[in-house]
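Key result, reporting period 2: structure in, sequence out.
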């Protein structure tokens, strides 16, 4: 039976196009699911009075804004760096000091982390593993809960995944730009929630201490 060799490249191209389209559709659906779980009944989510007091104080004073002060006199600061709180201040100034304004940065961070994890796993393990990982993070109960709170865990998670992605790109390409971007992202994560962010720091696998 004769085989049309000229048609093979076209068939492979069509197959790849279908695979890419299916993957794109799947990750859009998974991201939409993540957003629904994180934004459903958003206005009824209880607030954290400790950090919310700092957001209110920081929104009324540049000194309090820079230092992360929790009291109106800006004499006492919260127990975390103010990076994440700055996002909440910006959100509440735009949308008002309510549940929506306070929780929006975390819900967005938790949703975008699903996309970032998909990209990271796609580079490391391929499309199927990336979709499975993204879906797992989208529905993971603790990830949903933290993304619906006004603490800083979801934003830290997003920045950590981006840092790991940059390090992987640096290892792939050998480009110093990606390495510096990963280091900057990891430093930013540290300034969101201190030592907890170093869980995602890269290590040498040949180090006997690992």
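The corresponding designed sequence is given below.
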């Amino acid at each position: 039976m004769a085989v049309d060799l000229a048609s093979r490249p076209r068939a492979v191209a069509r197959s790849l196009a279908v695979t890419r389209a299916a993957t794109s559709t799947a990750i859009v659906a998974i991201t939409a699911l993540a957003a629904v779980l994180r934004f459903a009944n958003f206005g009824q989510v209880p607030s954290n009075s400790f950090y919310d007091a700092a957001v209110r104080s920081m929104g009324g004073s540049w000194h309090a804004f820079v230092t992360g002060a929790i009291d109106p006199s800006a004499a006492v600061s919260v127990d975390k760096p103010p990076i994440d709180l700055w996002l909440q201040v910006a959100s509440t100034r735009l949308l008002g000091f309510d549940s929506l304004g306070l929780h929006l940065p975390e819900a967005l961070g938790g949703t975008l982390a699903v996309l970032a994890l998909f990209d990271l796993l796609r580079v490391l393990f391929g499309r199927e593993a990336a979709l499975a990982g993204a879906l797992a993070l989208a529905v993971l109960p603790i990830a949903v809960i933290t993304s619906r709170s006004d603490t800083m865990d979801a934003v830290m998670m997003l920045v950590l995944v981006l840092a790991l992605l940059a390090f992987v790109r640096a290892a792939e390409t050998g480009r110093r730009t990606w390495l510096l971007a990963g280091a900057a992202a990891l430093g930013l994560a540290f300034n969101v929630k201190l030592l907890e962010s170093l869980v995602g720091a890269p290590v040498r696998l040949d180090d006997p201490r690992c």
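The two ends are 58 Å apart (CA to CA). The chain has a mean pLDDT of 82. This case is discussed further under Risks and Mitigation.
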